[in-house]
Amino acid sequence: MHLARGSGGDPEGWLWALGALALYALISYALAYRSRARRGSGQPAHDALHDLKDREEPQNPRQRFVSRTIMLCGGALTGLVAFTTTGAVRVGAVAGTAVVAVAVWAYYDHRTENPAARRR
Question: Is the full-model pTM beyond 0.85?
Answer without folding.
Answer: no
